[in-house]
UniProtKB/TrEMBL annotation:
Organism whose genome encodes this protein: Clostridium tertium
GO molecular function: ferrochelatase activity; precorrin-2 dehydrogenase activity
EC number, as in UniProt: 1.3.1.76
Pathways per UniProt: Porphyrin-containing compound metabolism; siroheme biosynthesis; sirohydrochlorin from precorrin-2: step 1/1
Segments traversing the membrane: none
KW NAD (keyword) present: yes
Protein name in UniProt: precorrin-2 dehydrogenase
Length: 222
């Protein structure tokens, strides 16, 4: 029985290419005022995107979202033209397919809420720390599984957050030290150097390997 289940799951032949976008520059259009539309509207809005929702009816939850433009109307094609991402979330199957076809003709990224396999894009679980952001998705639509995994990954990422900030500053400061730039970046961005950093021996070790002049340039902002 377990073997059969595994074989069924493996038939999901979907490959994703992830592209991080600047949320504050994204214009999101959502067609559908139900629960699915509300969840997507809230998620994009909380990340700073501009959101418009088009529907003849809206569930009461939308009243909690201020500064989101709610348009009470039937779907019209012009609605998608000035948007980067379209969320298709109506309860009308024929209308959903019409919007999907319009999105493809207009070269829009679209999320097909009714069936993720018909989507051009998906919204993975996202987690943010001070210096790290990452997203988790599954190939066979398992949101709870993605949430479970993201929480575990967040625990691991927390152990690296401060070090990523530290190593990022070093990376910026060595850009003009052309002769040893690559060597320093490779040396610093490693588990071994993270250990040295945590033992507060980072400056000593860097001076031993690269000299005092390079050390002063590296730590000019630290």
């Amino acid at each position: 029985m377990c073997k059969d289940i595994k074989e069924d799951i493996s038939r999901e032949d979907i490959n994703y290419t992830y592209l991080a976008t600047n949320s504050k520059k994204l214009r999101i259009g959502i067609v559908g005022g139900g629960r699915a539309g509300f969840i997507k509207a809230k998620s994009f809005f909380q990340r700073g995107s501009y959101v418009e929702v088009l529907s003849l009816e809206f569930i009461e939850d939308f009243n909690s979202l201020v500064n989101i433009n709610l348009i009470k109307s039937n779907y019209y094609r012009e609605f998608i033209k000035d948007k980067h991402v379209i969320v298709i979330a109506t309860n009308d199957k024929e209308l959903n397919l019409t919007i999907k076809n319009n999105c493809e003709e207009e070269f829009k990224l679209y999320i097909f809420a009714e069936d993720y396999k018909k989507s051009l894009a998906v919204t993975p679980v996202q987690r943010n720390l001070n210096n790290i952001t990452f997203a988790v998705n599954t190939k066979n639509s398992n949101p709870k599984g993605a949430l479970m995994l993201s929480d575990r990954m967040l625990e691991i990422a927390r152990e690296y957050d401060d070090f990523i900030s530290y190593s990022s500053i070093i990376r910026k400061n060595v850009k003009d030290i052309v002769e040893v730039k690559k060597e320093i970046i490779n040396f610093v961005c490693s588990e071994d150097f993270k250990y040295i950093y945590e033992k507060e021996k980072d400056k000593l070790v860097l001076e031993m390997f690269f000299g005092r002049d390079v050390l002063n340039k590296i730590f000019k902002d630290l």
